[in-house]
Amino acid sequence: MPIPVIADVDTGVDDALALLFLATHPGIDLRAVTCVAGNASLERVTQNTLDVLAAAECNAPVAAGVERPLIEPARDAGSYHGVGGIGNLKLPRSPRSADTLHAVELLRREIEASAEPVTLVSLAPMTNIALFLRLHPRTAAAIGRIVVMGGSASGGNASAVAEFNVWHDPEAAQIVLSSDIPTTLYPLDVFNRVAVTEQQISELRDAASPRARLAAALLDYQQTLGDLPADIASGAKLGDAGTACFLVAPELFGIETVPVEVELASGFTRGQTVVDRRRRAGEAEEHNLATPVSRSDVALTVDGKAVAELYLDTLLGRAARRQ
């Protein structure tokens, strides 16, 4: 049975790649997509989402949510994602409009309507999800799992220690990660290790389907950013799309269940995810000075080549033969 999924996005380049996968893989039932400001303005994110789903021939409902973080002013990652938020591309405009419901209410409607627990996939700052958890706790209790692209157990990208989605709204991230709902973190540690090759991008470019060709165009833009790890010579990072792949192939990842806390203090470390991988209690615990911290499943290693192959097979219509 396909996994019922709701995606919360701030559609930039790699969110678009993820949406193409979520809308295409036969093991995923994409029930709805909610939008939040992050990589671009809320208006631009919502239109990008509609346009990408149109290219994927997916009619999942789309709703706009929150325009800014819970506390801090709005800001975006436009310098990374290009004009319009999706790599300077101009997509055909979707004939659909966003749902009139607010994103938080669309989440409530779809979760309450589902006969089985929904997996909520967060590919953006977690403002919409945090508000949903606070406004509708009884409905939220029916969520099966929240899978979050966010955080890092090592270095950051928005700052030296903080990953963008968490850095953008640390308070929202802390609300989500400290909730009673099971959470899985897909941090920069694996985000940076999944890349498609130039040959694979060429295969997508030569495909008949519009969704595959759009994926190639997005990956072509990703290649221009030149932000691959030093030991990956060429190609393009899948970014958020790797989180979507995790849903159907968790066996390709190494997971540890560990305490995770978000740094909320102002200053250099704001937005850092403190991932506690210690094997024994430290001095703070020994002296009863540590406060309890919620635990999350954290993806720390990945078979990047296999994940890239899964993505390619899905966009080229070969995923069904893998199952």
Task: Describe this protein with a few key phrases.
17% strand, two-stranded antiparallel ribbon, Inosine-uridine Nucleoside N-ribohydrolase, Chain A, nine-stranded mixed sheet, alpha/beta, 323 residues
Structure summary, number of beta strands: 11
- Spatial separation of the terminal alpha carbons: 12 Å
One letter per element, helices H and strands E, the order comes to EHEHEHHEHHEHHEHEHHEHEEHEHH
Structural class: alpha/beta
Largest sheet: 9 strands, mixed
Describe it for me?
- This protein has 323 residues and is an alpha/beta fold.
- The chain has one domain: Inosine-uridine Nucleoside N-ribohydrolase, Chain A (Alpha-Beta Complex).
- The chain contains 15 helices and eleven strands.
- The strands form two sheets. It has a nine-stranded mixed sheet, sandwiched between helices. The protein has a two-stranded antiparallel ribbon with strand order 7-8.
- The longest helix has 16 residues.
What's the short story on this structure?
It contains 15 helices and 11 strands. By secondary structure, the protein is α/β, with parallel strands linked by helices.
